[in-house]
Amino acid sequence: MIDALGEAVAGHVVERLLTRLGAALVFLVGGMLAWLSSHGGWARLVELGAQAEELPTLVVLAVVAGLLAAAFAAASVVRLLNRPVLRLLEGYWTWPLQPLRAWLVGRKAVRRAVLEAELRKFSSRGERAKQVPAEKRLHRMPAPRWMMPTRLGNVLRAAETRPAEKYGLDAVVVWPHLWMVLPEQVRLDVGAARTALDRSTATLIWAVAFLPFGMWSLWALAAGAVLTAWAVWLWIPYQAARYADVLEACYDMHRQTLYERLRWPLPTDPDDERIQGEVLTTYLVRGLAGDAPRFVT
């Protein structure tokens, strides 16, 4: 019984360890292989293995502990960089990149205007096959006043601002309250989508950090460059779109629950909902003064 319990605990620890440090261990092992490529290759690895067999057990354990400590430290640094890197990719730039940001935002605004014109043209002609792709591209772009300089930034900004456009609800203000009334499965889905987005960003950080190993081996440089391009152009935008869809669906499907739990009068129609949403947002921020709706049950 005790042995079975010990094996179960050990297996759980190893699983959690690989989950938390798997990427860091791959990064360190890849760096070691790149170093070996320019320092003797396979023969050098065999030589190091023979030398390791002669070392005392405590020394081997100390080396393994040092490797795990380095992996833990690297993983911790990547987690700290995750949010700043994501905001950088979204386009939250300050000086000296402000002129570039303004230029890119202008180009995105022009692109949105072109898409709107194309959509009106396809709709008037009844060209549904062309209308649907244009609608999908336009759906990933916010209103001109919220435009961001990057595709990733526009995907996330569109999801953040659309509740205000459709329902008058400020997503930043309302989200903590909406989160508290979401069903458990929905919260798990939101958390999974956000975790996938964070992991894709972490992949980019690991790929960029792998590039310096190219001074020892060209394959390391090529691997880092390919992984960086894949993360920036494909993986992160894909995960951001998934997260944006889940986030927007939370407001579409569960905002009525928020009204009910706050004992707020339900809107009567879409126009009234935008007005009530703005009033509710103000109430959550600082309360209300003067005429206010009565609570309902």
What percent of residues adopt helix (DSSP H or I)?
Answer: over 70%
Largest sheet data = none
Which class best fits the helix and strand makeup?
mainly alpha
- How many β-strand stretches? 0
Q: What form results from the Cα inertia axes?
A: elongated
Fraction in beta strands = under 5%
Domain tally: 2
Mean pLDDT: 86
| Rg from Cα | 26 Å
Distance between the termini: 55 Å
Q: Element order, helices and strands?
A: HHHHHHHHHH
- Poorly predicted tracts of residues: 1-13
Number of DSSP helices? Answer: 10
Produce a short descriptive summary.
The chain has 297 residues and is mainly alpha-helical.
Secondary structure blueprint with pairings:
Elements: H1 2-37, H2 41-53, H3 57-90, H4 98-125, H5 128-139, H6 151-167, H7 171-181, H8 184-210, H9 218-261, H10 270-286
Write up this protein.
The protein is an all-alpha fold and 297 residues long. The chain folds into two domains: 2-91 and 150-286, no CATH class; 93-149. 80% of the residues lie in helices and 0% in strands. It has helices at 2-37, 41-53, 57-90, 98-125, 128-139, 151-167, 171-181, 184-210, 218-261, 270-286. Helix 1 packs across helix 2 (41-53), helix 3 packs across helix 8 and helix 4 (98-125) packs antiparallel against helix 5. It is elongated, with a radius of gyration of 26 Å. The N and C termini lie far apart (55 Å). Mean pLDDT is 86; it is low at 1-13.
